[in-house]
Amino acid sequence: MNGLQDIDNFIDIQLKGWELALLNYNDLKKVKTKKLHFKGFDVLVQFNPNRIVSSTAKVDATSIESRPCFLCSKNRPKQQRSLPFKMDYAILVNPFPIFPKHLTIPNLKHTDQLMENHFDDMLDLSTHLSDFVVFYNGPKCGASAPDHFHFQAGSKGFLPIEKDFHNRSLCSLQMVKEEVKVYKWNNYLRTAVTFQSSNKNKLSMLFNEYFFRFCQQQPNEGEPMMNLITYYEDGEWVVHLYPRILHRPSQYFEQGKNQLLLSPASVDMGGVFITPRVEDFLKISNEDVADIFSQVCMDNATIHKLFNWD
Length: 310
Fold this sequence. Notes:
Layout: H1 4-17, H2 19-28, E1 32-38, E2 41-47, H3 52-55, H4 61-65, E3 83-85, E4 89-93, E5 102-106, H5 119-128, E6 132-137, E7 150-155, H6 160-164, E8 171-177, E9 180-185, E10 193-197, H7 200-217, E11 226-233, E12 236-243, H8 266-269, E13 272-275, H9 278-283, H10 286-296, H11 300-306
Parallel strand pairs: 2-13
Antiparallel strand pairs: 1-2, 3-4, 4-5, 5-7, 6-7, 6-11, 8-9, 9-10, 10-12, 11-12
């Protein structure tokens, strides 16, 4: 691979030769979006009916065992091509896009969606895909294929978190440790911790330190519940970590008019709520967004304890 030009050419070739992907990318140009205004920031809501399969994916063990893995090469659509990344990954065009350019990057091996030992790969991928944000959904935090390790990537400039990170009334520097800046978020509805550094090794070491501390706090999980959004800009990696405590909010399981079919993942944490049904798009309110974040995200007191903040 020779970089971003190869990626753009690859996407163009895929869309010309894969009718389903082309149709869905054309449909993406027609999706409806609205803004919900909060103090100092916005949350976008996207009506995207093509995401209904992901939003309603059955991720219990029985359902996963009964279906072929759609990320394994032998089960992918014959039209879907791949580009290699390192020796372990395949870069694919996501045929059900949220972003103007949307990629899925599965591991070549059918191995569980668990971040341990993969964080450096995420940093390398974000360096290579410098026009993209790279994100990771934990097995109980929005991954529709928790049985096969993968990242996703989408066009930079799409997620509000990218702009909000530079607003110091929302995101303030908490400390600098071993060449890594650590930021906390204030009055942002969802709890998050952000790391920023130009030193890949120091960043990886600090992330892993907190990751294992996080593991001890959720010992009954295969890995701590989390979403990650990473990108590379101005010679530094930026990593947004969203510690989670719940997969889907209560509104997901309601019936009739009380239901909101939302299954929050990294994109939602980044500030774009994906609604696959028009009725949810029309009725979702600021109060709904705040309540959903409060249910699925770790609270501030626990975050401070996890990171030993005063």
